[in-house]
Amino acid sequence: MLNKYPLWKYLLVLAVLAIGLLYAAPNLYAPDPALQITGESSAQIIDERTLSRVTGALEEAGIEHFGEVIDPGGRNALVRLGDAEQQLIAQARVQRALGDGFIVALNLAPTTPEWLSDLGGQPMKLGLDLSGGVHFKLEVDVDAAMERRQEFYETAIRRALRDERIRGIVGREGDLSVTARLRSEEDRESARTLIADNHPELLLERGGEGESWTITASMTEQMRTEIANYAVSQNLTTLRNRVNELGVSEPLVQRQGQSRIVVELPGIQDTAEAKRILGTVANLEFRLVANLDAPESEKQRFEYRSEDRAGSFEWLERDIIITGERVANAQASFDENGRPNVQISLDGEGGTLMSRATRNNVKRRMGVLFIERKFRTRYELQEDGSEKAVQIPYDERKLLTAPVIQSALGAQFQITGLDSPLEASELALMLRAGALAAPISFVEERTVGPSLGAENIRLGVKSVQFGLALVVLFMILYYRVFGVIAVVALAANLILLVAFMSLIGATLTLPGIAGIVLTVGMAVDANVLIFSRIREELRDGRSPQMAIHSGYDAALSTILDANITTLIVAVILYAVGTGPVKGFAVTLSVGIVTSMFTAIVGTRALVNLYYGGRKVRTLSIGGV
Amino acid sequence: MKVINFMGQRKLAMAVSAVLLLTAIFSLSTRQLSWGLDFTGGTLVEVHYSESADLKAIRSTLDGGGYAGSIVVSFGTDRDVLIRLPQGHADTDGTALVRLLEDTFEGTVELRRIEFVGPQVGDELREQGGLAMLMALGMVMLYIGFRFQFKFAVGAVAALAHDVIITLGFFSIIGLEFDLTVLAALLAVIGYSLNDTIVVSDRIRENFRKLRKSDPLEVINISLSETLGRTLVTSLTTLLVLVCLALLGGEMIKGFAIALLVGVVIGTYSSVYVAASVLVLMGVSKEDLMLPVKEGAEQDDLMP
């Protein structure tokens, strides 16, 4: 029978729609404004007592709150608030009540019912342009990192030659090379062997004729990439640590391209504050572990930084051997027995200081301190009686490791006795993070106030509604019953689009909303194509059933071609574009896919249900 | 159905296209585009005043506060103000500026957004945008060449280039700001115009095979007449939503909507005239489309 779908096809359409409804549903539940409370360190457990201090502070301020929960591990707690307007005041009050040691972050707690979230249902995330917040783009100065490395090789080679009593002039050349000018061919050969032994990673090349014999040591392109990668990943780590300190829920710290880092902080307003905290540099200090009998005045107590050793400490001497700026590189590696270790390279000056300090202290231990700039909040009474929170910076020094010195150390040494390769790479990362990091600069900064975000949502939704209403009106007037069918398909398309975006965890941005609006306009195109084909077939004198059948068939290849080419454009947009362009590309391509399904399969199912399998004299498809 | 003699007017249409293109290119080369912050770099601050804002007063406040040469305009309403700081103020803290405005105004000044873009980012974006555009055109040409025939690919890409250049020219002449969202819109115009062109080309291909007429002009006229209804209906629905977006979507989305509005109108025209005229110019004939056999098989499916 013409125009009858087998039962399974109807069921398929129904099933897709049902799943779509299910996963679009979480977006109907508006999230509650909330505060998220976390301990500054993992030792800081949040218990009922902490929570009662929080609720006490909120009650005192007369702020409505409910639904307090503590994580099973006691790592963080969530308090929902009655009014979004009071979120900032609530944050200040609670932070005040708890003091430093706790981070109080603004949060939006989902209200998705449990059965929905158990099924993986979640609402769409909102982009910064809709939720308000700060977006930073930072550039890591890879060239500076390269220069430091080049400088390191220059001093290392000069020192090695001097130690071996080979006379020559060592200087940097270009961006990647160090050249030594020597007096004789003989000298050149011994210099070559020396450099090759000390720095097997460098590319060596002989040069110079007659009077001067030169040897040029170059870093390879591969090393360059590695150094750039190190510089970026080291900055990523430190930025992540600092962002956590800002007390932002769901921050984003992400590498972008070769040397950029994107930081997005929803809910933050004070960019100056955020920039200050993000921009500070960490540092390292190497100090000897103090002898047991050392007087109090010569030693200091430091706690370990790692969470496994939280609470344990060492006494270190007050004298500093070297600081982080002498560290050129730290790399996780393996020794000849396959045990994990960390290789550390110092610059020339650092090497001298290190060897002087360790020469007479073999078998003693040396502690490595990690220094981070942190901020403490103090409350100052203003003239008008209100209180203002002031951030006071201080340096936090914590012990990374305290290994035994096995022999006199020079510019290159290693830390062994590590438990796992993971521990080694973490230690190396912290050492690099503390070594003077490749400088970063802010190349882009965008702040969107919360009121603008809310307005963007309001306007976006309004224009979608109006646009949709106009299209619906037009389609029904122009195509009658078929118009109604197209409109139903359009609604289903929107539901599927929202469901799919929620499911893949896509972020909704303003251009994303524009993409949805455009999809609404273009989604009817497939139906317009089909319907005008059907009209043509009717004009050619075919029976209504025949016209439906061949109308759909004839339009199919056109629809496919048109949509695939548009999809190509959308995919290129996604691949090349960043930020807003990407958001637009995602909605556009998802919209193309869902609209093809609803416009071809979905409308056909409805048409078949309505007209299929019976005698039809006329089709209600508007003027033929 | 009445067959409209579209191709009879093609010389006139070509002249119109040529004039539009030349005007666009002339404006692009003399006036250039007024690049938005995304591309030039710099700092932009949007604030909301509790009462209607006095732009003159704001300007003098800024001049006195060390932000001389700032461009101050109202943004949408008379209470929303957009301030663009001149180059060299790149590192200026936008929050300090907002505080300055607050101090000199009795009501409240609310920060809407601050955008700072470093100069190197802008340069990269321009390169990236151009690259995206070229890549999109190239890939599309490949796909159409593969699915249809080389002459159709040339026609489609000519139509796309036509639409993009004229839309860019429109932005240049009107002096509308060209930012990232407008770039996204321009790429969407490529997608849309392509959609239109392919529907028309599809029908031309079908009719060359079905009608077996030897006169390409007639076949193209028939095809264009047949698809005219669809072209107009789709353009109309898209324009309806775009007008809503331009009028109701707010200031941040206006440029996007306007670029698409212009693009869709031009795209509709170009799918009728540019793509088809190029086909005629290149001497398309039914022999071009007789092969391959597999494509012919699709035709048989239409039979009852």
What would you note in describing this structure?
Chain A: Belongs to the SecD/SecF family. SecD subfamily. Chain A: Part of the Sec protein translocase complex. Interacts with the SecYEG preprotein conducting channel. SecDF uses the proton motive force (PMF) to complete protein translocation after the ATP-dependent function of SecA. The complex is a heterodimer of chains A (624) and B (304). Chain A is α+β, with helices and mostly antiparallel strands. Chain A has 4 domains: 7-26 and 450-611, Multidrug efflux transporter AcrB transmembrane fold (Up-down Bundle); 32-109, ACT domain (Alpha-Beta Plaits, 2-Layer Sandwich), CATH 3.30.70; 143-224, Gyrase A, domain 2 (2-Layer Sandwich); 280-447, Gyrase A, domain 2 (2-Layer Sandwich), CATH 3.30.1360. Chain A has helices at 7-24, 48-60, 87-98, 114-118, 128-131, 142-163, 185-198, 221-245, 271-279, 348-359, 421-434, 450-503, 510-539, 544-576, 580-611, and strands at 32-39, 65-70, 76-81, 102-109, 125-126, 133-140, 168-173, 177-182, 203-207, 213-218, 252-256, 260-266, 283-288, 299-303, 313-317, 322-323, 327-334, 340-346, 366-381, 387-401, 412-415, 440-448, 507-508. Chain B has 2 domains: 7-35 and 121-291, Multidrug efflux transporter AcrB transmembrane fold (Up-down Bundle), CATH 1.20.1640; 42-117, 2-Layer Sandwich (Alpha-Beta Plaits), CATH 3.30.70. Chain B has a 4-stranded antiparallel sheet. A two-stranded parallel ribbon of chain B has the order 1-6. In chain B, helix 1 (10-30) crosses helix 6. The chains are: A alpha+beta (624), B alpha+beta (304). At the A-B interface, strand 22, helix 12, helix 13, helix 14 and helix 15 of A face helix 4, strand 5, helix 5, helix 7 and helix 8 of B. Strand 22 of chain A pairs antiparallel with strand 5 of chain B, so a sheet runs across the interface.
